[in-house]
Amino acid sequence: MPAASLPPLVLATRRSPLALRQAELARAALSAVPSAPWNRVDLLELTTTGDRQRDWSLADQGGKGLFTRELEDAVLDNRAHLAVHSAKDLPTTLPHGLVLAGFLPRADPRDVLVRRADVAVPRTVATGSPRRRAQAPCACPSWGRHPQWLELRGNVDTRLKKIAAGEADATFLAAAGLDRLGLSAFPGLVFEPLPIDKMIPAAGQGAIALECREADAPLFAPFLCAATARAVFLERIILAALGGGCQNASAVHFAAGVLHVFHESRRAAFPDTPVAGEPNIADLVVRVCAWSASL
Question: Which fold has domain 3-107+203-293?
Fold first, then answer.
């Protein structure tokens, strides 16, 4: 079929600068697919409940689904073929009829402590993430005590400006988001990447997820990153087994054959015992659940 007669592929995305950057990365990857059954890739920009309700506490209001539902509705009602998400923002249970087609190659999964350059030990730290709050004593032992925790909403650039202006002494941001926006420095601020064994990332952190209708998944999966899919699907399965979500402090990250888990103020590392080169999901789930039951 001539390219001019092929339909466009439509990606649903939020309108924030980071979401649009991630959608552009997805568009570039799918535009480069050889002999693709689409002639171009278009973006459908949408505003989610989480974007509109900037005064809400995400942990109190349900968190992750606040930034995904409108995109998922666009896929379900055929306005879009794929929804582009930060994988860490996705609930472990998806709406009926939708699946994750796959992921782009994962970027740096670490968290970054962003603090004012004139403040060595922050007294006020802006984050609504229970995961980051619970792991801060291990990730930042020099603090010596619990800081005052504040909520801070807005896109990445807005958050950086608020910290630089003194609304709080520090915050935590995802390294992948900073990298994708080209933010390796900011006036008056210091960026300190945190080791994974001290601040275990959220499940899926650093990965861009593409969600589609269940019947369409075989069309897109072959063009996406299999290694990232193996890791993130495992993380999501473990997170679901732990009952984790936006309202609690669970964290899961799989890399280099090791599953890192944080739950109930404890952390552990589980070496994988792969089967035919694939992660041994069943074994890891059993081991993690036995560990969590002993806490």
Answer: D-Maltodextrin-Binding Protein; domain 2 (3.40.190)
